[in-house]
Amino acid sequence: MSNVENQPDELRCGGVATRAPEPELLQPREVPLGGPRAMLVGRTLPNRDRRMVGAWCFTDFYGPADITGQDGMQVSPHPHTGLQTVSWLLDGQVLHRDSLGNVQLIEPGQLNLMTAGRGISHSEESPVDHSAILHGVQLWVALPAEQRGVDPHFEHHGDLPVITTPEGTATVLMGSLLGGTSPAKTYTPLVGAELLINPGQAMRVPVEAGFEHAVLALSDITVNGREVATGDMLYVGMGCDDVTIGSSGEGRAMLLGGEPFEEEIVMWWNFVGRTHDEVAGARAEWERGREEADEQGRFGVVHGYHSPALPAPALPNAALRARGRTRNPS
């Protein structure tokens, strides 16, 4: 998924905290996906004060949206560097196309994982015969410096570990949880899982105490006894042996965690880098390749999408700078 803002903020992330912070409620801001009449998404990461959870650096939650008789999701070809995109649906279908030639439909319970590395471009769209409701999350994972230039590649996983307990079920997208390990490729120690909570139950989930964790509420839930509304995220910090998610009705949540990401990074538009020049260079290469439809260029060409590739926004007047992963490091 692209950050489609015409004037994207410089998102300054990275660096590790020196002590475990108190839990923080992170509330989303609304961002239009694809134009003035587009579906709105709620973006909880990066947030004003906390920009990352482990290597997770971007979280969008969208829907449920009734797209009956509409085009639904339509995100034209756009570039990425230095990150992985993690696509997860709760309802509906999305068709992925990329410059490596991959064409893959994703449905609920399946994972599309695209590692951008040194550079890739892709598009996302609701297929013509899409279902009525579109509902899902889009996540990004920052790649560590030594691997941010890996060759781009794409994975589709339709058979992920599902662990059932008396209180609910957990589907492991990335990393390991409750004895299940995802086949998805990771570059830093992290975990990502969808949790379904049975009505009136509270699911205790053992977690790595050396990870920091956050829970994105996909319905109204409680996290360690604290109420968290749909679309909000509760950052629970480090040093926890378990996280408990409860719900009066059927509950749904996304658990995200990982070792604190110690590097300082710059995230601007769809690029993750370390310096202004690195990001500016990626932007320039995208613009040149887009205008020339350069099959052999850094980002290649996406074939089969019905609209032209997205132009890159103008860079800000001030130089982009890598800064800490929180606004006020502690």
Automatic annotation (TrEMBL):
It comes from the Bacteria. PANTHER family: PIRIN, PIRIN-RELATED. Its cofactor is Fe cation. Belongs to the pirin family. Binds 1 Fe cation per subunit. It comes from Saccharopolyspora flava. Keywords: Iron, Metal-binding. GO terms for molecular function: metal ion binding. Residues 1-31 are annotated as: Disordered. The keyword Transferase does not apply. SUPFAM superfamilies: RmlC-like cupins (SSF51182). Residues 194-290 form the Pirin C-terminal domain. This is Pirin. InterPro entries: Pirin (IPR012093), Pirin_C_dom (IPR008778), Pirin_N_dom (IPR003829), RmlC-like_jellyroll (IPR014710), RmlC_Cupin_sf (IPR011051). It holds the Pfam family Pirin_C. Fe cation binds at H78, H80, H122, E124. Residues 45-141 form the Pirin N-terminal domain.
